[in-house]
Amino acid sequence: MNVMNFRLLTAGAAGVLVLAGAANTVEAASSSSDSLRALGAQVQLRIGTAASPLDLSDPTLSQITAGQFSVLTPENEMKWQVVEPQQGTFDWTGADNLVHFAEMHEQRVRGHTLVWHNQLPNWLTQGVASGAISNSQLRDLLHRHITTEVRRFRGRIWQWDVVNEMLTDSNPSQINPNDFWVSHLGPGVIADAFRWARAADRTALLCYNDYNIAGEDGSNAKFDAAFSMVQNILAQGVPIDCVGDQGHLDLQYGFNPGVMTQDLQQYASLGLKVAITEADVRTFVETTDSKQTPIVSPTDSTPSHTADPAAADWYNGMLQSCLTVQACISFTVWGFDDSESWVPGTFHGEGDADLYDVNLNPKPQYTALQQTLSLAAGAPNRLGRNENH
Ligand code: G3I
């Protein structure tokens, strides 16, 4: 019996398959029983989103943030650049607000992220570059940063992305020697970070988080490197509890959900939990400069745009992989609102990556997740009492 069947059998009473009309006209499930969080709860899977400060403060956005999701990740508000903009001067406003919001709405929190080469405070990177901060001092500063931030939220963070993106697509078979932290402190910094985080919070699940580490881009090179890395960490007795595969997909690169399922199951075979931590599916959109040949119809400006159907299928594939692997404890999208997505600012000419369009209408991507969760919670039983066919 695969885990999907197990989930169906244990999900209890037959669920109701949400019958959607034309995908782009379905209203987001406003009733709590049809929300992603409620449907996920029926199979013990937390459905989450990255959240910006606006997602917590805007009345319409916050209703979706609270109503649809049961775990939140701060998109930027717990990153070192934000919490310690000047050395010794801390700004916990955004992080405190998100944790408070989550606790008010019975949501859990994924802390993100303690050790990453991006979004470091200028005083740190400039101090290292100038030589004012030695490698020994850098190690002490990282230890203090991890201890300070993890202790502040001790007992209130479900999963911590302790270390983020230590592998690289260009040289996928090994830990990136050119990573800011590895180049200054050596690969041992990864184990140190997990030990320091555990010392500061005995209960949080400590995760390694990265993209393309579950075969999603068609290559298993990064999976092999990530699997080997976490195996080595475990062999050293280092406290690591989970692996987060980000799930940032791009329609131009392909996606194999079967490989993702196998790879997530491989991490689970080490005794680790797994999670999809930053799911979104980007594609080319018609641009205003019309230099790009439109691959899909205009998006973002018209609420009735028709998305490429593959985008919904790929979201579904990631969710089904997570549902199939019993150790997969959460499925988080990296924001839900196309108008706030990180994608257009990073990948010119691409967008349409999230569950809701810029007018906050649910897209086929949303409906696909909702229907899959409904089925996982228990498809209606068709055999009536006296029917024997
Ligand atoms: O807050 C400043 C603002 O004061 C300033 O005026 C503005 C213009 O310079 O920049 C603002 O900071 C931006 C920050 O997001 C907050 O909006 C940074 O420039 C911008 O680079 C940063 O982008 C974030 C990106 O990580 C940085 O690499 C995205 O929002 C965020 O979604 C993205 O998230 C990452 C995950 O943390 C790790 N996995 C990959 C994922 C996508 O890159």
Question: Can you put this structure into words, describing what you see?
Answer:
It is built from 15 helices and 10 strands. By secondary structure, it is an alpha/beta fold. It has a single domain, classed as Glycosidases (TIM Barrel, Alpha-Beta Barrel), CATH 3.20.20.80. Helix 12 links the parallel strand 7 and strand 8 (273-284). Helix 1 packs across helix 15. It is globular, with a radius of gyration of 21 Å. Bound molecules: ligand G3I. Ligand G3I binds at residues 75-76, 118-119, 164, 246, 278, 342.
Describe the secondary-structure layout.
Elements: H1 3-10, H2 36-41, E1 46-51, H3 53-57, H4 59-68, E2 71-74, H5 80-83, H6 93-104, E3 108-115, H7 122-130, H8 135-152, E4 159-164, H9 180-185, H10 188-200, E5 205-210, H11 221-235, E6 242-245, E7 248-250, H12 257-269, E8 273-284, H13 309-324, E9 328-333, H14 343-346, E10 350-351, H15 364-378
Parallel strand pairs: 1-2, 1-9, 2-3, 3-4, 4-5, 5-6, 6-8, 7-8, 8-9
Antiparallel strand pairs: 8-10
Helix pairs in contact: 1-15, 8-10, 12-13, 13-15
The site of ligand G3I has 8 residues, from loops.
